[in-house]
Amino acid sequence: MIDAHCHLMDINNAEFSGLEAIANCGYDLNSSRKAIEMKKALRGVVLYANVGVGPQKCMETSVMQRVAEVENLAREYAKDINAIGEVGLDYHWGDTPEKRERQGKAFEAFIALAQELEKPLVIHSRETTSECIRKIDQMKFEYGVMFHFFSGNASEAKEIVDRGWLISLPPLRGGRVAIARECDLEALVAETDAPYVGKTPLDVRKAIMMIAEAKEMSFEDVEKETSKNAREFFE
């Protein structure tokens, strides 16, 4: 199994039995640095190190300084990182025009960074799926894109799939059951967003099971395909 998105630096005593790999995602300078350090130190499971500043942390006037710090980190350790993320837009927390403008500038900088380093993007898109798609299109980004913790609608899911991008589904049901049912399995990966949704990366089993039930497929077949999709994205 592969957990396509978690924050391992925020989990104490995580267990990895049964996991092939984990995508360990930074959301600010410190967590991004830890993602790189953990990739080098951890044994027994493959770690993908992703670096970025989440949009929730891109709303202050000093945001571009934060962005520059992570840009420098990414360039220094370009050979060690697997993706730029999580980055994007979040209009739940970005509830004023000023905050949204700062988020947008930071997002554009990270899209440009990913293009420069030839890395894929991991997107945080709470209440902003269409806006994120448009921004990526406008900047003519040429590499892989994964919409983490997908919360958009069926039309937005189709736009993502039509572009050859990935939708990452957490161990929560609701409207995601329909998304899992309607999207081709080749466009899906499973995640936990642990410790904030799943408690540990092992909870990716629940996300895989949700997809399997929605598609009326075996757990084993879904696990195999979602792991393949994640592996190809990050490697």
Can you tell me about this structure?
This protein has 235 residues and is of the alpha/beta class. It has a single domain (2-234), classed as TIM Barrel (Alpha-Beta Barrel), CATH 3.20.20.140. Helices cover 43% and strands 15% of the residues. The chain has an eight-stranded parallel sheet with strand order 1-2-3-4-5-6-7-8. α3 links the parallel β4 (83-88) and β5. α2 (63-76) runs parallel beside α3, α6 (176-182) packs across α7 (204-215) and α7 (204-215) crosses α8. The two termini are 15 Å apart.
List keywords for this structure.
235 residues, alpha/beta, TIM Barrel, eight-stranded parallel sheet, 8 helices, 43% helix, globular
**Backbone structural class:** alpha/beta
> How many distinct beta strands?
8
Rg, nearest Å: 16 Å
Identify the quaternary structure here: single chain
- Tally of alpha and pi helices: 8
What would CATH call the architecture?
A: Alpha-Beta Barrel
Summary of the model, kept short:
The protein is α/β, with parallel strands linked by helices and 235 residues long. The protein has helices at 29-41, 63-76, 97-117, 129-138, 154-162, 176-182, 204-215, 219-234, and strands at residues 2-6, 21-25, 46-51, 83-88, 121-124, 145-147, 166-169, 188-190.
